[in-house]
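Attaching the record inline, Q. Sequence:
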Amino acid sequence: TAILEAVKSINATLDAAVTVVIVEDGDDNANRRPPEDELYATEAARLYNEDHPCNEPTPMTHSIVRLTPAQLIEKYSLPTIQTLALWGSMDTRNSLIISAAFHECQTLGIT
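Structure, as predicted:
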């Protein structure tokens, strides 16, 4: 929400938002309540669209990427390490989510 508030404070608008959430391993994820981060981000996006009538008729889209820890590590470790050109547990770990978000932006055609 800090980003959404900053955008609002300078009278800018956003076309899209991407949220990456980590879900538990297992086949029964469909029957579980979404992670708190996902619920929070979904509500923040809804409120942003509600508070920005200038976005009409095209409100900000909100894409949610759900990955298990194994999927996040498997899919994004190598490209993240190559992009950062370093290997450090905290640097790499904290950047995996950002890599996943950037990948979703690329998929959506957001540059």
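Helices lie at 2-9, 36-51, 69-84, 89-108. The first strand starts at residue 16 and ends at 22.

More tomorrow.
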